[in-house]
């Protein structure tokens, strides 16, 4: 029956499929953007599932970035005193020293042997140790004591904001770090002239500096080398390190090689000593394993949440994908649509997750309770992990969409 309206014959599904192809091809040939826009509208059509997918990625990105940044912060603590000791390029020590806190004292005569090596401009003594201090209140506190050269004051802190480094030449003079001062005397204003005892010897605070936190988190006290060995427990050998500088025109690495050949000691550039210390903590402690397990759990949980929710989203929209295929959309374009949805979720989840991790770092840094350092390597590693998560999450969905029968759109 033909004619206006009610008597019009129904077009078979197969005819509708084939007659729709030219229109679809015309629509798709204009640009890829409309299809990607359709993918985006499908993605945010069900807000609950969309937020569920994003939550999984956010959780993974947050946990990976946060734990990796805390790990990097801890590694910075292990090398903080190497980085804070500005000036010398070369650290000379016993051959068996593995990291900066692995002190194996040298004989004082080693200083003159190092000075006599060709290519060494100068060399000075440096003491590092841990002592117990008795405060005016009668309590005791563990402190890290650093003894710098008496004559040149090489190794002195650069961040002194109360007092002066030159005041270290006064009798019993010490400079303490600000964080350590506040830990010993919480809630009290910074004040010079405070007196305490180390090894039954008087120490007077003549300066306060901003030193980096250490792995041990003890207060840090700077004094002259001759004074430091008086504060330290009595030992036959007390020289911890020799700080040296290469002569002009001699690379630091070459000077280190000559020192090792002539003296039999271990000589490292500052960069090499930093790497050696970090390598020790990476290989000889459980810190990397503990943080690695946490990061792996975040990755697995994020993948599971995002994958399950993304699959449910695809199943719910399977008829829409079938309709697109019925209109002539190729499997390749369908694949692009699914991957674009996954990448859109990944970008949003990565941005929110890393942003929350950064806010966590700012908050904890303000409290001064947790070490947090987020270098660009953490951002790149987190981005790669998120990319892998969204790709894994979309695998099952891709297979489900590619094998869908276009005729599903005409079924009840």
Task: Give a brief outline of the structure.
With 412 residues, this protein is α+β, with helices and mostly antiparallel strands.
Shape: elongated
Summing up helix and strand content along with how strands pair, one would put the structural category as: alpha+beta
Gap between N and C termini? 26 Å
- Spell the H/E element sequence: HHHHEHEEEEHEEEHEHEHHHHH
Rg to the nearest angstrom? Answer: 33 Å
Q: In which range does the helix fraction lie?
A: 40-55%
How many DSSP H or I helices? 13
Tell me about the biggest sheet? Answer: 6 strands, mixed, barrel
Mean pLDDT: 83
| Low-confidence sequence ranges | 1-32
Strand order of the largest sheet: 2-3-8-5-7-6
What's the number of structural domains?
2
Strand content: 15-25%
Count the E strands. 10
Describe this structure in words.
This protein has helices at 13-30, 33-45, 47-78, 80-84, 109-115, 178-184, 225-231, 252-263, 270-284, 287-316, 318-326, 331-367, 376-402, and strands at 90-93, 120-134, 140-148, 160-163, 173-177, 195-198, 201-209, 220-224, 241-246, 266-269. The protein is of the alpha+beta class and 412 residues long. It has two domains: 14-75 and 287-410, no CATH class; 107-264, no CATH class. The chain has a six-stranded mixed β-barrel. α10 (287-316) runs parallel beside α13 (376-402). The chain is elongated.
